[in-house]
Design goal:
about 180 residues, alpha+beta, 4-stranded mixed β-sheet, 4 strands, globular
Length: about 180
């Protein structure tokens, strides 16, 4: 968990480090303990007004793939710097024409702590056709909880930030301590 100030500094670092012509706009930057996900908007392909849905979908897919291939080296250079600086993997994605595509992302193993009753819930979702695997079922459960508890989770995150600020002011706080999102070697 990082504070809003740390998140803003992280977003500022990426805004300053990304090549100017990479994205039209840096639309989203999310961070957790393992990963930073950078998502930017890219220009839509120009199509005739009467283009079919199939043509539009193919053009969007092609634009995303072209962007991914053309910018790979630039994105890898930024990711290397960020991974060294922030000690987290960097994942990339784009928004184009109302569509979102993630290129890379970290799949962190989390099911090792689930007991049989929890695994049975996941297996029921698989049997019911809601998910293809336990990983998909777990992700589905997380999205369901997130959808129904956004306000509660936002309040919890705010509380955690307050706790971090209070801890930082305690007697054991180092005056020159750098927050985790800004670590440098």
């Amino acid at each position: 968990m990082i504070t809003n100030e740390q998140r803003e500094k992280l977003r500022g670092w990426f805004a300053g480090r990304l090549p100017d012509d990479l994205f039209e706009e840096l639309t989203e930057l999310t961070v957790d303990r393992e990963e930073i996900t950078v998502i930017g908007r890219i220009p839509e392909p120009r199509l005739a007004e009467d283009a079919s849905d199939a043509e539009r979908e193919a053009a969007l897919e092609s634009r995303v793939q072209e962007f991914r291939e053309r910018t790979r080296e630039d994105r890898m250079a930024v990711a290397r710097d960020a991974e060294h600086r922030f000690r987290r993997k960097v994942s990339w994605g784009v928004e184009c024409g109302g569509r979102r595509a993630l290129f890379t992302h970290v799949a962190a193993p989390v099911m090792t702590r689930l007991r049989q009753p929890e695994r049975q819930v996941l297996d029921t979702l698989i049997a019911g056709g809601v998910a293809r695997s336990r990983s998909d079922a777990l992700a589905w459960c997380v999205r369901l909880v997130q959808r129904h508890t956004d306000d509660w989770l936002a309040e919890l995150r705010d509380s955690l930030e307050h706790v971090q600020r209070v801890r930082a002011q305690g007697p054991d706080a180092e005056t020159d301590r750098t927050p985790p999102a800004d670590d440098e070697e």
